[in-house]
Design brief:
alpha+beta; four-stranded antiparallel beta sheet; Immunoglobulin-like; 20% helix; 3 domains; globular
């Protein structure tokens, strides 16, 4: 609640400052004729100008606070997750990159299936399913079917994202704040959702629940931030987007974003999250000695997947977490590719 009030106070301060500026500006414009009238000792004219100042002030307050009232109205829940084909989001941070909806379809139950492109990689799976009737978004790559977002939820609402299983703890989502904000120069509403892993046997969030991550959605924009509760954050921060043809923020041109045939690149593993096998693809711009190594978040070496001379081109290799040294627990792992003077790394999520 303290966090929510802080955001409200920021917005109220902005509106108060803006309103005060308008009033002072209006008053200063009206004062010169008032002073001229007063110097002529024309009381009737003085009253007229004072009345003009009062009326301008009244209408400015009416305009500003009427705008605040309209701004505070509940947005269309589906606007928190813009789902048109061609929408693009570009993020900075450790999990940054370009995301684009390149295809959609509708199943026999009326659910909308969304296919996402990540940089220049087209995953062969449905990323999200949308139930527009109940304002629900499911996260569905491969074996997952998480109830990820309830777009009509309000502050304090919570829901089960995934059930408890023999290999996984129950994941619960909680809307911790929902408030008006100005983003990319646009009036919008923020929704902050915090995700918790519950202790086995628990069905509600309590003091024993383990906070995993926070996502922030903006009405009319989509996801703007991903904060990992373990490693700090944000891991993803929205720099720009194209929503229904409108460009907000900073967007890299498609030509600049394309990876050339002769470039060095490491692609996102798939599936991700995975259990226990995933595939890692990479592209070498020239032949040379190549290393591909898996690390924990603490920098401990988990497995050496590649350590040999390889020709230029695209390569792929599978990583089997069950065959790694020790019994790897669920969590985030880093895979790092190096070839000559080139190196890069990405993160992957093991979910048992």
């Amino acid at each position: 609640m303290k966090h929510q009030l802080l955001h409200y106070n920021k917005v109220q301060f902005f509106l108060f400052a803006h309103c005060t500026f308008l009033i002072v500006h209006c008053a200063l414009k009206a004062i010169p004729p008032v002073l001229r009238s007063f110097s002529k000792d024309n009381n009737a004219q003085l009253c007229l100008h004072l009345k003009e100042i009062y009326m301008r002030t009244f209408f400015i307050y009416l305009f500003v606070f009427n705008g605040l009232l309209v701004f505070a109205q509940s947005p269309d829940p589906m606007n928190f997750f813009p789902s048109a084909v061609g929408n693009v989001w570009e993020y900075s941070g450790q999990w940054g990159g370009r995301e684009e909806i390149y295809k959609d379809s509708v199943d026999q139950n009326g659910l909308i299936h969304l296919f996402y492109k990540y940089d220049d990689y087209y995953p062969p799976y449905i990323t999200y399913k949308i139930d527009t009737t109940n304002h629900i978004v499911y996260y569905t790559p491969y074996f997952l079917n998480w109830l990820y977002y309830k777009l009509d939820a309000d502050t304090g609402d919570h829901w089960m994202v995934r059930p408890e299983t023999p290999s996984e703890q129950r994941l619960e989502a909680l809307v911790i704040a929902k408030y008006p904000f100005i983003y990319f120069g646009r009036q919008t509403t923020f929704m902050e959702i915090k995700y918790f892993e519950l202790q086995r046997g628990d069905t509600v969030i309590n003091e024993n629940a383990w906070p995993r991550f926070v996502e922030v959605l903006a009405e009319g924009i989509g996801e703007i931030m991903y904060i990992d509760q373990e490693g700090g954050g944000p891991y993803k921060f929205l720099e720009g987007c194209i929503i229904n043809g409108d460009t907000l923020g900073t967007i890299t041109s498609i030509d600049e974003n394309m990876i050339s045939v002769n470039s060095f690149a490491l692609f996102q593993n798939y599936p991700n999250p995975f259990n226990p096998i995933t595939t890692i693809e990479y592209k070498l711009s020239e032949s040379g000695n190549v290393k591909l190594i898996i690390y924990s978040l603490l920098g401990e070496e988990i497995a050496v997947l590649v350590n040999e001379f390889q020709a230029a081109g695209i390569h792929s290799i599978k990583f089997d977490a069950s065959s790694a040294v020790g019994d790897l627990p669920s969590g985030i792992y880093i895979y790092r590719l190096s070839a000559g003077e080139n190196y890069t790394a990405k993160k992957m999520l093991l979910l048992k």
